[in-house]
Every structure is written in C-alpha cells, then in structure tokens.
Amino acid sequence: MRRAHGQVAIALNLVIAIFVVGSLGIAAYEMPRLLLAREQLKNCLEFAALAGTASLASSSASGAPATLEAKQVALNIFKMNSILGQPLTNNVREVTTLSQLSPASSSVDVFVEFDDPVTKQPTNSASNVMRLYGAYKYVLFSGGFGSIGVFTCNLTEQALSALPPLDLILVHDSSGSLDDQSKVTLVRRYFDPSVNPPQPSYVIPNPGGNPEQGSLWSLFCSTLIGSQVNGLEPQNLDAAGDPKVAACIKEFSEVGTMGTTVPLRGVTNTGSMPGDSPPGLGGVGLAGMTVGPGNTTSSIASASGKSSTIAAAQQRQSQSQNMLTSFVGRLLGEPAEAQAPPPYNPWGADPTMFTDLVVNIDGNSTFAGAVANGFSFPDYRWLVEASRGNLENGAVAPNAMAPLAGTPMEGAATPGYRNAYRLAAYSKLEPKGTLERAVKGFLSKISETSDCHFGFVAFGDRAGTAPNDTIKAPRVSWAYPVAGKVSYLIPAIPLDSNSSNFRAITDLLSTPATSNTPMFVPNGGANLADGLQQAANMLTGAGARTGSMKAVVVVTDKVPTRDLAGNVYMNPGANGPALTDAINVAKTLGTKGIPIFVVAIDQSGGPMTPFLLSQFSDNDPNGLVYAAGHGGVLHTDTWVDPVTTLNTLNGKFNNIVRQLVVLNRG
C-alpha cells in the first residue's frame, strides 16, 4: 500500500515537473520573441514617420495633397520592412481611426495622425508633425494556452517625427547688390527748347536715343561683389561711375567728368525743370551750370572730402575706360562704350551721362506701361516723374514738366503717385524678392514642422540691432545734396521666448503697405561677422529657450566685404580680415553647439561660386560652416530668372528643413 502511494506521488511529481518545466521553457521561448516583435514594430514605425516627415519637408505641395503624399511615403517605407523575418509587403492595413487598430494574425494595422507642432495634439490644420500608431498581432509559436483561450497577443507602439523645440536665427544679407537683377531704365532728363511748349526731354546714353534698359547688373557690368547703385533710395547714383564696382561706366550728371553738368537734375528735388532750363523756369540756365566734381573717390566709402581737381577726375575716367575696355572685350568681344551723343547737348556732356534711374514696375527689361495700386504709368517718363514726386499734384506737375499747364502728366497728377511707384518698384527688386519668397516658404515649413521661435538679423555695412533700426544716407547721391537724406531699414527682430515672431518676420519680407516709412531696401556692403555676432547674442540671451535646439541660417549673395571694424574689402579673393572675423564668430557658435546653414546665390553666372564654396565651405577646415560644425551645410545657387531661381532655392531650403528634422521620442 505504501509502495502504491509512493508510485502515485512520484508520477504526480513527474507530471508537475514536466508541466512546470515545459511551461517555463515555452515562456522562455515566447517572451524574447514578443519583445523582439515589439521592438521591430517600433523601429518600422520610426523609419516610416521620418520618411513621411522628410517628404513633407521637401514637397512643394501643401495642405491635403501634401499630407496624402506623406502618408503614402510613410506606408511604403513601412511595408519595405519585416517583423520576425516576415515581410510586411502584403500584411499592412491603414485604418482611419485609432479605435480600428485590430490586425489579423501576423499582420499590422497602421493609423497616421498629424499633430500640432506645439501641443503635439491631433489637428486638422497644416502640420508637418507626423505620429504613427501601429498594432501587430503576434501568434504564439507554441499554439497558445488553448486551455485558457490565449492563442495570439496584440502588440502596440507609436512613433512621432518632428523637430524638437527650435530657436532659429535668420541672418539676412541686405547689401546693395541684392537688387542687381532688377529691371531698370536709365534716363537723361534735360531741358529742350525745341519742344512747344518747352519742357523736359528724355534721352538715354544709348545709340539712337532709345531707353537704355535692363538689369542693374548688366547696365553697369557689376564686379563680383555687385553694383552699389540701387533701384530705390538711397540710390547712390554716383556709384555708376566708380570703376571699383562698375565696369560699364555711366556718369551721374552731378559728378560727370566730361561736361558742365551741375545741376542738371534740377535745383530742387521735386517740382522743378531740369537744371539747364532758363532761370525763369526754375533752372539755372546753361550759363549757370558748372563742372561736376568727378567721382574721384570710391562711392562706397565715406562721402566726406570728395572734392578734387578736374584733371584727377579725367585721370580716373581714363582708368575706368581702360578697365571697361578690358572687361567687355574679354567677356563679350565687343568695343566698350560705343554710345552716340544725344541730339541736344549744347554743354558737351559725355554720352554716358544720366540723371535718373527708375525701376521697371512691370518687371520687364523694356518697360511697356503698367497700372500699379490704381495709378497709371503709360511709359518710362511717368516712372521718372513719379519717383521725383512731380505727379503728386497739379501745382507741382506744370512747374516740373512745362512752363504752361495742360500737359498730360499735369492733368493726371494726383496725390499718391510716388507711393504707388515706390511700392510697385519694391515688389520688383531682384534677387531680393525671389530670395525672400523662398525664405518665407522655408519659415512656413519650419513653423508647421516644429515648435520654432525665430529671430531675424539684417546686415549691410553693419547688422541691425532693433526692429526699427535705420541708417541714414543721401537720397540720390552725395553729389546731389538738395535731395536730402533718407532713412532705410536695417532691422533685427530679437528672439522671444514667448513668441514665434513668424508673422513679424514674414511681414518684413513682404512688400510694405506704404513707402512713407523707412523701407527694407538693399544698400551698403556685407558685414557678415556683425550679423553672426548679433545672432549669437540672441541665441545666448534672455529670449532663448532652455533645452531648445539652436541654429543659424544665412542668406547672402556674396562673401564678406566688411570686417567688424568697418573696413572695406572690394576683392572677394582678398577679404581676409572680413572673412576671419566671420569665421571667429562661427567658431564661437560652434562651441555652444550651434550649426550654421548658408544659402548663397551667385549673381555673376558662375565666377563668384568658387569664392562661396571655399570661404563658406562645410568640409574644408578653413570654411565658415565647417568652423561652426554640428551638421551645418552650405548650399549654393546661381541666378537665372525669378521663376527658375525660386524653384531651385526652394529645393535648397527644403534640404535644410530635412537636415533639421529629427526623431522626437518624447
């Protein structure tokens, strides 16, 4: 009896042992596979979310088309993976709500959600923040615990792809060359007694007396650092005769070296006939004209102390003509400055002399007339008179246009013409307009992708320090003081821990509502070091957020031409101090983990690119982007036209968005 009981106990112990040990063995096998399956599901979701977000960043589409494309990219990437060695190609289903996640055995259900970049909560608004939810039904290898009805196990995971909080400073070149692709008309406005009634006539320093029109860059054969003549005030018209920045020399009437030209523009800035008109009509007459002082000092340096002898001026003219002949002959194989003299020129002024430069507000090389802001501009002469302020009222117009009232312009004169011209001209400044449209698209993508706070720094001869920071300069030229001075905007919008600044910056980069306040127009040199220093101050100041990513994006069309002391470097191959100052600031940013991304546009058609590539390099230890490190990248582009260049610039900025996109596991 005792033996029988012992045998039963032994048998029972064996059964229990087998069951327990077997169960433990099964569990030991299943648990690692369950954990592996879950980890692989997580990885698949992360890869897919990153791909989808990158698609949104690089897509030119927006709204529903963009999100549909991004979802398809994410799902395609997800299906290219596998879980526990089983390909997902045909085992993935997209569901439309989170509650529908109920996959079939060994399959995955995926739900794609777009979240607000700040709150990370679901949103129906445009967003580049993608969250993927996934559910995988794991089939127990052992056949499950059938006795308790457990045969499968649902594994769920999610992944979020977005930028973490980001503080980003846009450092924006606003130097004089940023309008060099603007289409303009060059005019000599003079008094013609042969017209009945006598009135101003217009002849252009061009064979046949036709308007000399085209881009600023082409009219003055700009050097690599660009022209210092501007389409809008301050215009620096004297720089057209400065051989350091203009190889096709044109003479502003008040500094011409060949003729008695002062004051051909008129003895007042508005409401006057040309200076060569009789004194009774508001001019000084031929007898009252004097020889221009000549452009004997670089127009981009200080305007003080510019007087000199005519002999020195003529020597400068001879040097500039030799430079011009070499430049044009080398590039075009044509003789230089083959102008014919104007038909009426009793004072013997040089054929290259002009009085006015205006922007073709239709955007064409040859102005064909336009209506802007409700004001009609039938031909280029209306642009000239509107820019001078001579179409503001009927009392000014007849004085400026003829000794007798009744001219077409006098009849059309009405307040607002000058403002309408200036706003229309501002909208046609290139490459400024194209570059800023691309920048606004970039800012929109970043703001949709992340919790981003922006700062902005414009730089010319120096960097801006406040939103309403201005610089004062001669309105027309140092040689025409009667026009007075004008203040132009050189803004800086400080980083703000409580505001994204998105609206303030995009408004700044758009055509303003009025031209009666200082405008954000190009002028001066390129003091990049000062711009970077202001950006560094923002990113380390009270407006920066603790724990945020930080980055600087520079947009420019040239290498640095000013150092921190304000010294000028005209040759892009001999600008060592200006470049060194900029690189030193870049190194300081690098020590704080802040990368620099550069988008540089070459207006010269190629010759500036080697300097951009070497001085801003991201792979050469001597390059500015390399000096900051931390993943910064240089992107270069070449100006073609507004449409083509906008498309290529969008690609450059989209690349920066992709480079900033990281996986947010929080």
Descriptive account of the structure:
The chain has 666 residues and is α/β, with parallel strands linked by helices. It folds into three domains: 31-161; 167-176 and 430-663, Rossmann fold, CATH 3.40.50; 183-425, no CATH class. It has 15 helices and 23 strands. It has helices spanning 2-58, 63-79, 216-219, 310-332, 380-388, 396-401, 408-412, 417-426, 432-449, 502-508, 528-539, 576-591, 609-615, 624-628, 642-660; strands at residues 82-83, 86-87, 92-94, 108-115, 129-139, 152-162, 166-173, 183-192, 199-203, 212-215, 251-252, 353-354, 356-359, 370-372, 375-377, 452-459, 470-474, 485-489, 492-493, 549-556, 596-602, 634-638, 662-663. The strands form seven sheets. The chain has a six-stranded mixed sheet, sandwiched between helices. A five-stranded mixed sheet has the order 3-4-5-6-23. Strands 8, 9, 10 and 13 form a four-stranded antiparallel sheet that branches. Strand 14 and strand 15 (375-377) form a beta hairpin. Helix 1 runs antiparallel to helix 15 (642-660), helix 5 packs across helix 8 and helix 11 packs parallel to helix 12. The relative contact order is 0.11. The model is unreliable at 302-340 (pLDDT under 50).
